[in-house]
Known about the structure:
By secondary structure, the chain is α/β, with parallel strands linked by helices. Helix content is 46%, strand content 13%. The longest helix is centred in the middle third of the chain and has 18 residues, at 149-166. The termini are far apart.
Amino acid sequence: MSSQYSFAQLVIGPPGSGKSTYCRGMKEFLSGLGRKVAVVNLDPANEALPYQCEVDLTELITLQDAMEKLRLGPNGSLVYCMEFLEKNVEWLHTQLEKYRGHYMLFDCPGQVELYTHHRSIKNIAAQLQKWNIKLVAVHLVDSHYCSDPAKFVSVLLTSLSTMVQVELPHVNILSKVDLIQQYGKLAFGLEFYTEVMDLRYLLAHFSDQPFFQRYKKLNEALVGLVEDYSLVSFIPLNVQDKESMYEVAKAVDKAGGYAMEAPMSTAMGANFDFFKYPPT
């Protein structure tokens, strides 16, 4: 790539968290603000894309190819595909050269291990940065996990592990907040979960089942670990709500330095008005 910087989001998270829907919505939102946006599909299993894709990994390799030729299961095949992309990263370089200067959205696979301890995604991200692409990791988690205290602690651990492993400016997102009431009443207000407040109160809501009582000290230690790092917080997102999308875009721009390096008219669109946005 040239010395010109491109800015990009590395959209990651577990299966079903809404990564592709987010990429579609964010592309529409940023395009409406005047940015040139290119979506890059890095999921070899994602063959039914809900958006127009400028660069598509399935042109290089698909999950089905790996499963059939190597006789691997879906998880092993996905790991192989990421390692194959890492070894053939010049293919990606050639494709991205066509969109130099665009704001890029990298739609990544939904296998958690790729972000918590496997190194291929991390190495690919490092290579992207060598090509003057400034990345922000946008980690999506389905907000329905807030309805189960034990699952939410698991989400916190996964998010923390991902932040430490990926080593990028990072924004955590609670997706699908418009659907959260479908999963029952939350033990606390939504702000408790987004700001990750005193988690000792959350432990009190763990089930009184013998399983949880048996591992009470372990749960306390895990919660203490999250609090000691003091890194994890979330932004709630309803992808259909413009104000919600704006808050996420603003946080990502701040994390990646986009608003500082681009003129304000470019950062938010030539006709953007902070006091009138979002339109009613």
